Amino acid sequence: MRQPLIAGNWKMNGSRESVKVLLDGIKHSVHDVSTAQMAVCAPHIFLGDVQAQLENSKIAWGGQDISVHESGAYTGETAGSMLADYGCEFVIIGHSERRTYHAESDQLVAEKFAAARQSGLTPIFCIGETLQEREKHITEQVVARQIDAVINHCGVKMLGEGVVAYEPVWAIGTGVTATPDQAQEAHNFIRTKIAELDAKVADELRILYGGSMNAKNAADLLAQPDIDGGLIGGASLKSADFMTICQAAQ
Ligand code: PEP
User: Fold this and answer.
1) Which atom of ligand 1 lies at the shortest distance from residue 214's CA?
2) Which range of residues forms the domain containing residue 62?
3) What CATH number should be reported for the domain holding residue 161?
4) How far is 81 from 27, CA to CA, in rounded Å?
C-alpha cells in the first residue's frame, strides 16, 4: 500500500513573514489529515525558519535543488549534507524550470539523484514532456528517456528509494491541468516500464502528479489508481488550498 504524498513546491516565493503565516495555517489544520504524508519544499534561505516551525510536527520539508558536489568552490550551490543539516527529508530533482532555465541534462539530474541518496535525502524526481512533445505523440519516449538516465546511473533499486513526479511541462503554472485520464495513462506507462525491470520497485514507487493541481481538481486526479499524490506549486502557497488537497489525498 503506497502512502499518498502531497508536497508543496514554493519555488522562489515568500518572505520570512509569509512563510510563518503559511506554516501557521498548515499546522492549524494538520490534524484533519490522517493518512497522507505532507511536505513543503522551500527556498533554501528559509529552511532554518521552516525547520524551527515544523520540527516535531508531522509535516516534512525539503529543498528545491541539490549540488552534485559535496563541498568546495561552487558559488551559490547547496550540498546534500547542508540540506540534511537543516532536517530536510526531501529534495526536488530535475524540475522542468531547472531543466529549462539552467539547462540541466538528464545525466546531471541522474547525478543529482545519486547525490541526494548519498546524503540520505529522498529525491522527488520530476519528469514530463513539453507541449510540443505531446503534440508529436512522443510523451512516452520522453519520460522513458528521463527515467532511463536515472536507472542507468543509479540502478532501479535506487530509483525506488525516491519519488517520481510526473509533471507535464505544459501544465506547470499554466492553469491547464492534465485530465485524470491523461495523467493516469502516463503514470501507468511509468509504472509498467519500471515493472519490466523490477516489479516490487514499481509496485511500491510513489508517482506524484504535478501541473496546476488545485483544491478543485485534486480529488479527481488523486482518485486514479496510479496517482499517489501531488507536487503542488501555486496552490501550495495558500494554506487552505494546500490542506484541501492533502485531505483529498486520503
Ligand atoms: C510545480 O512547480 O511543480 C508545479 C506543479 O506548479 P503548479 O502547481 O503551479 O503548476
Assistant:
1) 8
2) 5-239
3) 3.20.20.70
4) 27
